Amino acid sequence: MSGPEHAVRLKKLTFRAWHRGMREADLILGPFAEQHLGGMSDAELDEFEALMEIPDTDLYAWIVGQKPVPAEHQSPLFERIRAFRFEARGAVSPERWGG
Hints:
Layout: H1 4-18, H2 23-36, H3 42-51, H4 56-64, H5 76-89, H6 94-97
Helix pairs in contact: 1-2, 2-5
């Protein structure tokens, strides 16, 4: 999908990712949205949009591994978000330290 409606959707999702309310979540999801939303399929955008509906404390805890990710949210997209947290900070990914 492309066109004005698609551009508006990307802009709204990026804004939501940066303005969740919990700064720690904003600092992961905002940059992720800026870098990756433009290349996502409509299905992935739908999934990302659904993740934006999850309370910050839960979503952040899943991303950083404080709580297990519910089966319905375990997906390649969610794993990309988790991996991005390390890439964005230049830190060692969980695969490299065994976590």
